[in-house]
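Researcher: Here's my situation. A collaborator sent me these components and asked whether they could plausibly form a single complex. I don't have experimental data yet, so a predicted model of the whole assembly would be a useful starting point for our discussion.
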Amino acid sequence: QQQVRQSPQSLTVWEGETAILNCSYEDSTFDYFPWYRLFPGESPALLIAIRPVSNKKEDGRFTIFFNKREKKLSLHITDSQPGDSATYFCAASDGGSNAKLTFGKGTKLSVKS
Amino acid sequence: NAGVIQTPRHKVTGKGQEATLWCEPISGHSAVFWYRQTIVQGLEFLTYFRNQAPIDDSGMPKERFSAQMPNQSHSTLKIQSTQPQDSAVYLCASSLVNSGNTLYFGEGSRLIVV
C-alpha cells in the first residue's frame, strides 16, 4: 500500500513554463511534507517543506499548495529552467518522535529550452 | 564539515554472496536512516536508528537484510545471499531527531548483483 503517491511519473515542460507536480497521501497523522530534489549523479536534497497549519509555502520560484481535506499537495515551479531538470520526491512524516520520512516514487521533470 | 559518507560507492557481487555497506553520519546527528532507491519503487524506507538504537525496521526484507549501528559514528547494512532484485542504490541519511528535521543523504552505494 503506497502511503504517498506522486503524479505524473514524468513531466516535460518548456523553459519559462510552470511545472506542476502532484502528491497525495493516505495517513491522516502525517504532519510534515517536504519535497526533495535529486539531480543525476547526486544525492537527494531538501528543496522546500510545509506543515498542515499552512496551505501555501513559497520559496522563490517554488511553491507548495496544500489541501488537508483532500490529502493532496502540489509543487509548482514557475519560470522553469533547464537547471530544474531533476527527479522530485514528495515525502511525509508524522509527529512525535518518529522522524521517518515516507517518500513517493518521484516525478522526473525535464525542462526543454 | 563533511556530509554523510558512504562506502563503497559501487559494488558488484555475485548472486548468493554477501554485501556489506557502510555509513558514517554527520557528527552530532542522532538519527540514521537507510533507504533503497530504484527506478521502479523510488525511495523505499528500510530502517532507522535513533541514538544507535533500532527504532523502526519495517522496511527491511526480513530474511536476508540486517542493519547495525555499533557506535554513533557508523552504521552498516548487510545483505546475505544477494539476489539480482537487490540491485539498487542504497542511501544512508542522518538528521537531528525531531520530526521535521532535514534528512541529509550520502551519495549512496550502488549495488549490482550479477
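Model: Some features of this prediction you could bring to your collaborator: The CA atoms of residues 29 and 41 of chain A lie 34 Å apart. Chain A has one domain: 4-112.
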